[in-house]
Amino acid sequence: MAILLLSTEACHLCELAQIELQQAFSQPSVMLLAQQNDLQIYLQDIIDQPLWLDLYGEKIPVLLDESSNLTLEWPFNATEVVIWLEKIISNTGLNPA
Question: How many domains does the chain divide into?
């Protein structure tokens, strides 16, 4: 399962979002969730996709689950990331931690 962190170059808020993601993924429950569901986070520059640029250009950083189109827009913290990830997992019918 792939989750995208939509960002762009020289984006200070995107760097802060990456820190929040690291904190979320350092929690044992999220580590287990990620392992059980082959959960990966990919950094994606919105410049690469004109649609993303139109939709999220003024909202980045944004977490996007392409399979469900669920997003989590900045500002968010590690706790909100965990809740969002759990929601995605439960919506897909995969294995919750």
Answer: 1
- Cβ within 8 Å of residue 32, ≥6 positions away: 97
What are 34-62's pLDDT values in tens digits?
Answer: 999 999 999 999 999 999 999 999 999 99
Within-domain flag for 47: yes
Answer yes or no: is 80 within a domain. yes
Query: How many Å apart are CA 57 and CA 21, to the nearest integer?
Result: 20
Instruction: Give a yes or no: residue 37 inside a domain.
Output: yes
pLDDT at 93: 66
Question: What is the C-alpha radius of gyration for the chain, rounded to an integer number of angstroms?
Answer: 13
Residues 6+ apart with CB under 8 A from 95: 33, 36, 37, 89
Q: What is the pTM of this model?
A: 0.90
Look up the domain containing 76 and give its range.
2-92
Find where tokens 């690469």 sit: 48
